[in-house]
Amino acid sequence: MVKFYENAFSYDYQWPAVTLAYFLRYPNPYSTHVISTDTLASELDPVTGNLHLTRLHLKRGKLPASVARFLPKIKESYILEHSVVDVKNQRLETETRNLDWEGVLSVVESQVYTPSAERTTRDGKTDVQTIVRFESRLGSGKVVKDVEEKRGFFSNWTTGSVQRSIELVGVRRMREGLGRSREGMKVVLEQLRERGMVGVLREQRKGGWERWKKAWRGEGELMDDLPIERK
Amino acid sequence: MSASIDPECSEKKERYDTCFIKWYSEKYLRGESQTDECKDLFKEYQICLNKALKSKGIDAMIEEARKTSPNNDNAKHG
Fold first, then answer.
1. How many CB pairs under 8 A join A and B?
2. Which residues pair with A85 in a beta bridge?
């Protein structure tokens, strides 16, 4: 079963700053579940001038009780991120997906960052289009390595009800995750503007996140981020 | 700056990350660089990282995933 969710929003910052914040976004006060980030590949295409980056994030799973009973062993998950920066055309494309539970639940988030046509603020804006492809593969017949073993957890439940539970939780978590990652980006962008890159790096090393969070609490405007379901 | 998956690699990662972010913001974004200036630091960091991924037993999973990505370099180049 495959579902798509779409979302559009804008940052009140210029495109170069937003792309820099994207690569610097961890750690931030909203990313306490992100344990590590490593770069696996960094390639500059000599023909197009595009920059291709592949990174691996390790995230701590905070599973709700309703799902933890089905998947007792998920504590951490690996996220693969691939991004392409096209500096000539000012376009950043990103794709993140979960790795280890791909056979049971696959979530692929694709984003496109471009300068906004609407230039109402002095500094310009950057639009972000997000599409999340959400697939639970239970009972779909597509079995990848290791999945048989993992599916053993589900043997006492009817596939349909488990699948629905996982999908519901997955959708809710995805919405929460999108909101959190946006808030995290805003914190990094604000700090980049106020302190510059060196200041951000210093602060990230010191881990002064609580102070940032306090300063931001209640200040950001709430945007309508409910995803639209495409059938 | 974020931590590495293996604390052993954190120092090398930090040196590379610092180089990369500086190059990215001061040169690449301004269209002033056609070469990756952090290659040597990246190589050192990768030696450590690849060892860590192997010892955690996730190197094969990652390689496989990178091959099948709909957005991978082979599909995207050009």
1. 103
2. A51, A92
φ/ψ of residue B64, rounded to 5: -60, -45
pTM for this predicted structure: 0.79
pLDDT by 10-residue block (mean), chain A, 231 residues: 86 95 92 92 94 94 59 74 96 91 76 84 83 73 43 49 67 78 92 85 68 44 34 35
Residue of B14, B22, B29 to mutate when probing chain A, most A C-beta within 10 A: B29
**Which residue ranges make up each domain of chain B?**
7-68
Domain covering A2-224 assigned CATH 3.20.20.150 in the classification: no
Mean pLDDT for the stretch of residues B37-50: 96
What is the Cα–Cα distance from A52 to A45, expressed in whole angstroms? 8
How many whole angstroms separate alpha carbon A27 and alpha carbon A3?
Answer: 30
Indicate the residue type of A168. Answer: L
Tokens coding A86: 């096209």
Contact B50, B44 (CB under 8 A): no
As a whole number of angstroms, the distance between CA B29 and CA B23 comes to 9
- The tokens of A226 are what? 């409910």
Q: Between chains, do B34 and A97 touch, taking CB under 8 Å as contact?
A: no
Domain spans of chain A, in order of start: 2-224
In which residue are the tokens 């937003």 written? Answer: A18
pLDDT value at residue B70: 52
Bridge partners for A10 per DSSP: A127
CB proximity list for A117: less than 8 A, separation 6 or greater: none
Please give the single-letter amino acid code of residue A203: E
